[in-house]
Amino acid sequence: MIEFKNVYKTYPNGNVAIKNMSMSIEDAKFVIFIGPSGGGKTTALKMINRLEDATNGEILIDSKNILDYDINLLRQDMGYVLQQVALFPHYDVFKNIAVVPELKNWDKKRIKNRVYEMLEMVNLNPQIYANRMPNELSGGEAQRVAIARALAANPSYVLMDEPFSALDPATRSSLQEDIKKLQSHLQKTIIFVTHDIEEALLLGDQICIINGGEKLLCASKDELLSNEDEFIKEFIALGLRHRNGLYSKDECLKLAKMGTK
Length: 261
Known about the structure:
four-stranded antiparallel beta sheet, about 25% strand, globular
């Protein structure tokens, strides 16, 4: 379990990115961080693997402060997938996926078996893709390789920062379906940042709305759609209007509730 306890993040210029954030992230759940742009959701994600450190408060993993973990070992136990695919351009697909297993000194046979297994899991034929270079991949294929790399060393947690937002709708829909199946099959804790409420409702077991550096709510889909807070209702409705056309707030919420059944 990951716990935020009264966490603040203040930058040297005085900008407060995270304000008194407290929340618990359960193991083996698909957890969504969602909110308006600049609201703090990506900062909160980066604090989990210490790309950003808290100014005050503490973040615990399995009841241990993350500052007490060796930072390299901490990060090796966390897969990370970005919006902009960050494959190593001079490594082929095999080498990209093998990076963390090699850091962990796995033997060559184990690494090969794992790379091929992960390619199959993300629906890429190992015989076709293992030796391809990143510049030979489509955007969707490259993001599938990035997901395979994030999962290759069997991490406890996978952090995903708007990984599908730059993809075309058909590719995005396919990857959403695949990552949900992978999470269910592997029972990994995935923490997924998005600005898209429809994506959040599709994927999330637990959805955390973050705005102005504060956690407004962490709830299941049904609890979220039944919440009476006006900001939360308006945020959901605006997102669904953008996706589905001009519906009233109440119509948007009704449609969303029907879609979760």
